[in-house]
Write a structure and sequence with these properties.
The complex is a heterodimer of chains A (212) and B (582). By secondary structure, chain A is an alpha/beta fold. Chain A contains nine helices and six strands; from the N terminus they run βαβββαβααβααααα. The longest helix of chain A is centred in the N-terminal third of the chain and has 14 residues. With 582 residues, chain B is an alpha/beta fold. The chains are: A alpha/beta (212), B alpha/beta (582). Bound molecules: thiamine diphosphate (TPP).
Amino acid sequence: MAFTNKKVDILVAGVGGQGTILASDILAEVGLRCGYDVKKAEVHGMSQRGGAVESHIRWGEKVFSPQVEAGKADYLLGFEMLETARWTHFLALGGTVLINRHRIPPPSVNLGAAAYPSEEEIESVLGARAARVWWIDGTAIARKLGNQTVAGMVILGAFSKLLDQPGEVWTSVIADLVPEKFVELNLKAFGEGRGLPLPAQKKGGNICETSV
Amino acid sequence: MKKLMTGNEAFALGAYLSGIKAGAGYPGTPSTEILMNFARYPGVYAEWSTNEKVALDVGAGVAYAGGRALVTTKHVGLNVAADSLFYTSYTGFKGGLVIINADDPEMHSSQNEQDNRYYAKFAKVPMLEPADSQEALEFVRLAVEISEAFDTPVIVRTNTRLSHSKGVVEVPGRAEPDPGGGVLDGVERYERNIPKYVMVPGFARQRHPVVIDRLAKLAAYAEQSPINRIEPGSGKLGVISAGVAYQYAREVFPEAAFLKLGMVYPLPRDLIKGFAAMVERVVVVEELEPFIEEHVRLLGVPVTGKDVFSRTGELSPEKVRRSAAGAGLAEAPPEAAAAPSLPARPPMLCPGCAHRGIFYALQRVRAVVLGDIGCYTLGALPPLSAMHTCGCMGASIGVVHGVDLVGVKDRTVGVIGDSTFFHSGIPPLINVLYNRGVSTVIILDNRVTAMTGHQENPGTGRTLMKDPARKIDIEALVRGIGFEKVDVVDPYEFKEVVRVLKEHLDSDEPSVIVARYPCVLSVRERKEPFTVNLEACNQCGNCLRIGCSPISKVEGGVSIDPSLCNGCGFCAKVCPRGAITA
Ligand SMILES: Cc1ncc(C[n+]2csc(CCOP(=O)(O)OP(=O)(O)O)c2C)c(N)n1
């Protein structure tokens, strides 16, 4: 298969327990099945205990570093609002953000020592680098499907629309990687995301280059 | 067939394919999954040993008997096993022995970021360092060959970014293990050889020259080994690198010539000199210490290294580029941005975690808590802030004894997890009693090694192979040592915990409290979420002080996020107004 984009660098950010690892496994496997060299990096262990987690997924003709270089990520997929903003500096100028409209307050906010940034504040942090910020009600959609943990799959579904890989590649990877009894639910969530209308484009974004 | 594998998965497959039949280790991020994956292959044996030293001794025994052995530990695990590393270097083995040892630059999950390449030099054993998952698989196989050909343990060094990253691996179609791995295959390979295997001074003196000679042979091997290779490039810049750092350097210096070292000890002298002669300027890109750089300097080659690249933390493409740009070696990234400043999100004790009850009680009795390593170390973070020292596994009990020798005005207590207790808590506990100590030790028995991802341990009644096992009875063990004051508490019973704590901490009798409740994640216990009656809430803040993430401050009180709440009800127990209910 030949695709228009020579390299795709993706960062997935969220909170431990939100399914960022499964999502990034799916992203890596899709790249492999589409003929790319692929690397993926993340950190397990201490940071999983409700802390901030991020996964790097890289597709290319030849990939050396498992980590995306700061300032070069084409896409930032955020499963939680604050965590999305935290990785803004990894985004390439003109990159694209998909952000789940969902808040998990960190301890300092719970204790009233810090404020959780508003949607406008988050949008403006991201907007410093992103050409497009696509807000997605992933958690709300997932809740309607009966399980809010599949919010990430909604985001993946939406993301799949920005690339030119055929939908069947995505669904077959999901069917292979998700534990059997959750496949249907995950595919439904993915389908919901893929069915969302694309938002309007800000000037000079990279979506046109990466989707034919 | 092409497959995406983590470094740790590839290590396990490599070990299986090279005919290793026995593996021993102790969990430790980022090494843990190597043995977990290895244990799943047919016809192999793998165990969680009680600690890394035991694991290496087990591996040595397997290899003495002619089997091939795998030992896995994180970097600091080799500190625990160091004594055994040094004798195995002298004795060598009948079968091959490979130690896969995982460094953790940046300390993603560790107490320090020591550079374990020095262990290879220190113990005079060879060390290989793969740079991706494909090499992880291949280097383990090579390590077995080297071990058997040179009669030495071989260390394969990995790190967090190799162990936990996925890359494409060409998996052999018919994956049959190499025959000759041993372990009860009916072939007798054991041989008695007292001068080789009994390290009394007279015999050890004979072995040391053998080890030195072996090192010379290994250095000669390093000169021609295909895993030390030159990748041609422009004559201007020559980069010497190894492991994951090589990958970063390849991104930052696309034009440069590379000397990619797969064997990081011993290092090849002529190869390095020859490479240096080919280029105008030599740069060494390596994480942590200037290990390769020092060697290159000793050869009289001028080199750029730690004068430019950081000696702390892990490298990354960005860090290498920024440092290189600062020294005029690469173009700066055109529009770098700083990380936005936002509220941090540190790891926390999970909702429902039983450790919380103990640390909240310790905070309330104002104890000085001499701590240890595990999930429970999170008790040191605010708002609990109820652990005051933590250095390495097993340290708590010796430290509390030492603190009690001097005395402090507040109550003191040592706190240690169950797996950590089995790992290195028993000798210091005996020490307290033997040396007439007065300390109290709390063993946080959550019935699993939780921190590293819920591994079995001697208290769980199951082995790594999932076979039923004898459950080591902590109370019986402690009483057997001779402790008479021993109590078991349920950490959720706040009032009872405080009562027992005061009784023990105020007494001069050395004592042990076992706080027992299974890790809620490991047993997947989840009850109905609790809710807050804002009319009853007087905003005292007690429930916020237990540091449970679903509970947050809102107008007029607090609220509990039902999607995060585990339903343990501990917050209800600390609420003086009964405002929190199921
Ligand atoms: C020598 C050494 N080996 C391994 C580790 C990694 N490690 C840290 S704590 C821990 C075990 C924790 O288990 P436990 O004491 O039962 O506490 P829990 O996490 O279950 O609360 C391990 C394996 C380490 N830090 N040092």
